Amino acid sequence: MRCDELTELLPDYFQNALSAEARSTVEAHLHACADCAAQVSLWRRLGELPDEEPSPRLHRRFEAMLSAYEEGRGF
How far is CA 19 from the centre of its chain? Predict the structure, then answer.
């Protein structure tokens, strides 16, 4: 497997949507290719980051803009 082929399979790999054979092929490549293994490690760490919540100030600004939009549309 080439690195570009692995890159195309990563979304399905992370969602456990690959066949057993394809998953085995991906994992074999990851054991043999340090660059791809590092890329997968980075994506795993990024997936562990907590979701950022908007600040109260941002929420108020959004509500004000939505209200102004709705007034302009005659809601």
Answer: 21
* pLDDT tens-digit readout, 44-58: 999 888 988 889 999
Q: What is the 3-state secondary structure (H, E, C) of the chain?
A: CCHHHHHHHHHHHHCCCCCHHHHHHHHHHHHHCHHHHHHHHHHHHHHCCCCCCCCHHHHHHHHHHHHHHHHHHCC
The pLDDT averaged over each successive group of 10 residues in the chain (75 residues) is 93 94 96 96 91 91 94 79
Sorted by sequence, the CB contacts under 8 Å of residue 11 that are 6+ apart come out as: none
Question: Tokens 């509500």 appear where?
Answer: 63
